Amino acid sequence: LKATLYTDDVADPAALADRFDGYFDKILVDAPCSGEGMLRKEAAAAAEWSEQNVLMCADRQAKILESAARMLAPGGALVYSTCTFSREEDEDNAARFAAAHPDFVKCEEIKLYPHRVRGEGHYAVRFTRAAGERRIFRPAKFTADRKSVAAWRAFAADFLDPAALPQGQLASFGEALC
């Protein structure tokens, strides 16, 4: 589970899509971006900016959008947003997404510039997915590492009130036991 679902404690969108195919009615993608909207506010953002970084971010965002499309149920809404001015990351990504997904309709699109509104600069687009037959969701069976469960139970027995403990099956998510 850790190797396929998490990398450096961040959920891999493709692995999430494998587990939650067609599950969500609404998805907000606040995409990691080149952060051009932060250039005047943070010196580090300006120092890290490059055309290569913009293209790398646009590619990563396209992959995240693809996973989000897989997770959205028929009739659902998807909002994609960034805090950049980059056309490659904003309008171009939205256009490529719409062209590749004819079952998605672009409903609204807005670009906010700091000289026109309060804020640093943002982009957002809302898509809706055509209605259709909803898939039956069968959640994956999450399991927990036996050593982790044993360590948790030993800790809980020594330090916690048994009446206050949550009931049910434990599952491992990366390094976390839930």
Could you tell me the strand content as a percent range? 15-25%
SS element count, helices = 6
- β-strand number: 8
Shape: extended
Low-confidence stretches: 1-9
Helix percentage: 25-40%
What is the element string, with H for helices and E for strands? HEEHEHHEHEEHEE
Q: Overall pLDDT, averaged?
A: 84
Name the strands of the widest sheet in spatial order. Answer: 3-4-6-5
Distance between the termini: 13 Å
Structural class: alpha+beta
Biggest sheet statistics: 4 strands, mixed
Computed CA radius of gyration, to the nearest angstrom: 20 Å
Describe the structure.
The chain is an alpha+beta fold. Strand 7 (172-173) and strand 8 form a beta hairpin. Helix content is 35%, strand content 24%. Mean pLDDT is 84; it is low at 1-9. The two termini are 13 Å apart. It has helices at residues 2-5, 13-19, 43-48, 51-71, 91-100, 146-159, and strands at residues 6-7, 10-11, 24-30, 72-82, 104-112, 122-129, 172-173, 176-177. Helix 2 packs parallel to helix 4 (51-71). It is extended, with a radius of gyration of 20 Å. The strands form 3 sheets. It has a 4-stranded mixed β-sheet with strand order 3-4-6-5.
Topology:
Layout: H1 2-5, E1 6-7, E2 10-11, H2 13-19, E3 24-30, H3 43-48, H4 51-71, E4 72-82, H5 91-100, E5 104-112, E6 122-129, H6 146-159, E7 172-173, E8 176-177
Parallel strand pairs: 3-4
Antiparallel strand pairs: 1-2, 4-6, 5-6, 7-8
Helix pairs in contact: 2-4
In short:
The chain is an alpha+beta fold.
Keywords:
about 180 residues, alpha+beta, four-stranded mixed sheet, two-stranded antiparallel ribbon, 8 strands, about 35% helix, disordered N terminus
